[in-house]
Fold:
Amino acid sequence: MRILLLRRLNQSFWLLLLMGLTTWGAWRFCILLAPSVTRPLVPAHQELHTLHSQHLESLDSSVTALRLAVITGQPEAVLLEMHEQIRQLAQEVTLLSVSEPRRKTALQTPLLDQCLAFKRLLILNAPAPALSQHLATLQSQVRYQQFLLTLAPSN
Structure:
């Protein structure tokens, strides 16, 4: 009988210790989760807005650099490489404009369409003034997006 009682006490001790450790772990886990659950989502919108603005500025400066390269008569390989960078930036800007809350722009795919049209013109060996004019159109669309972004509330 005494051995049976000691076994039960030993089992109870380990069970209580395990329950205590589980409770402590759950309490620590809740403390870690509490700040992220109660944190407002406004800073995320602000960060998204800032990131979108930075990408638009980068796209604008890249289009300016490509336009300068077209005017100065850079080789086609250099122009294609610069075009690929611009296409990637345009895709990122398009994704950011779609993902921004409370913001629906009419210029979500035309940036990419303009990039593809420029590549077609480049492959067809269009004259530099035509390429420059096409880049001016693309740049005006980028700047219009920047204007729309400044009008949109950032939070």
